[in-house]
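Notes from hallway chat w/ T.B., transcribed later so I don't forget. T.B. wanted the structure written out for a chain they're using in a teaching module, and asked if we could keep both sequence and structure tokens in one place. Agreed to drop them here.
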Amino acid sequence: MSQVKTYKRLEPIQKLAIVNARLRHGDLSKIAKATESNPTTVRNVIEGKVENLKILNAAYDKVRQRKKNSEVIRTLELASKKKAQAQVVTSK
């Protein structure tokens, strides 16, 4: 019996782009621990210098449910603007 795939198979370069757009502080060390790899090797994979599918897949699994960093920053900026506008309105 064949398994039903619930995701689109991505090329390594596509996974790398997604990982780099969503990687957060401390993720490299967590990925290194999870894959029992050297943090330098993990960094080289994330930077695209070395290809290692085990590390890349672990990194992708870690970040695939996250928003892009640019979206998070945009959300924070909008919230900050709304807060500043609310303070101006209440101070009048």
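Follow-up for T.B.: The chain is about 65% helix and 0% strand. Might be a good example for the class.
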